[in-house]
Amino acid sequence: MKTAELLQALVAIPSVSGDERFIADTVSGWAEGWGARVHRKGHNVWFSVGSGPRRLLVNSHLDTVKPCAGWTYAPHAPEWREDRLYGLGSNDAKGCVTGMLVAARTLLAEGAPQGGEVVFAFTAEEETGGQGLGTLLPELGPLDAAVVGEPTSLKPCTAQRGMLLLRCTAHGKSAHVAHAHKAQAVNAIHMAAGDISKLAELRFPSHPLLGEARAQVTQISGGLARNQVPDACEFFVDLRTTPSMDHAQVAKELGEALRSEVKVHSARYLPKATADHQPIVRAAIAASGEAPVGSSTTSDWAFLGELPAVKVGPGDTLRSHLADEYITRAELEAGAAFYTRLLRGYFEEVARG
């Protein structure tokens, strides 16, 4: 099958997070047909090409979000129109998966890079943070670097924001609204409003590729009745952090700055950065001809610890999760060629030292 046909076949398989079994079966069957020894854990698929002391992880995700409103094409009936493939997941991230599969097929046919092993892992539940790459890492063994496939217009992303979610609760004192002053009531919504205003003014240190971070209040609830001063108001804060920000320290400082009680709701999506001198970055720059960029969206890179990694792939991140999602034929073909150059280039950079 040609590259465009592989992608069209993948997009035709519904694979909303948690329901990736059929697409995992398909990818497994293809890889086995090309001569790979395939492993499975749940809906995760992985196999290796080559052998050697250096091991490079090549990963992208098989799952998609649910289709949103507004589609004018059938999300799971992909069709090429004017060199664009429309369909759910075509851009995020089955174009990356297809490019990586074509690179794997090429290496299986022509031989792996000398002195190295490429570990291809196509994983589940990236969109929901579930049973995907984070749970698979112990099975993969030691790794030296990673490529994470997401649509970046083939620009190597060497810095990625993290996500810190805080649950804040303003505690007040209730009373009948008519007696609020005499009863010395404390309006928790008013208290929360003051803290929210303070959050809107906060600025955090800027990152050269990501810019500054700002806290966003995304949900708020409080009050029991229209004639009762509320004694509690809860709101959630979403802070997309940069690599210089320690989640625990930021939460502590915000807890000291706000009148509301601050608790960490989620902190596992850590910000990431890889230095320009790392072989995987040098190889990505050489393969793409593009300077490094930053990415505001999270990905499975967040679970790779201190492993040097680059997030890069065909397609445009601004098309992700939209109605009538698409990728162009030129982007797809360029992505497949790019991944092949990148994988060989990484081991060449390692050999140079």
TrEMBL record:
Domain Peptidase M20 dimerisation: 158-263
Entry keyword annotation includes Phosphoprotein: no
Superkingdom field: Bacteria
InterPro entries: ArgE/DapE_CS (IPR001261), Bact_exopeptidase_dim_dom (IPR036264), Peptidase_M20 (IPR002933), Peptidase_M20_dimer (IPR011650), Peptidase_M20A (IPR050072)
Keywords: Cobalt, Hydrolase, Metal-binding, Zinc
Name of the protein in its database record: Acetylornithine deacetylase
Biological process terms in GO annotation: L-arginine biosynthetic process
Cofactor(s) needed by this chain: Zn(2+)
Organism, as annotated: Myxococcus fulvus
GO MF term list: acetylornithine deacetylase activity; metal ion binding
